[in-house]
Amino acid sequence: MTGYYDYILGLIPAALIGITFALTLVGLPVVSAVPVGATVAIGLMGHAMFRKGPVPETPAIDPDGHGAGSGVDRSTQSPGLSARNAD
Cα–Cα distances in Å, from 13 out to 7, 21, 38, 52, 87? Predict the structure, then answer.
């Protein structure tokens, strides 16, 4: 199954090469066309990293080593005591 990041990885070189080639065809010099294509490619990378950043598929592990869905009842534990520092 292709996802957002698969499309981004395909669009980065396509934008760099395709936009540069298209601008060169319409008469813009290569020296000016390459930075425009690179700006679009960098914009795609920035969007993938910062606007729609990757999120972990598994729940995060808390400092006690239990996952978010581990079934451990935290309401009965005092905030300063855990199995690690109870003695």
Answer: 11, 12, 9, 19, 58
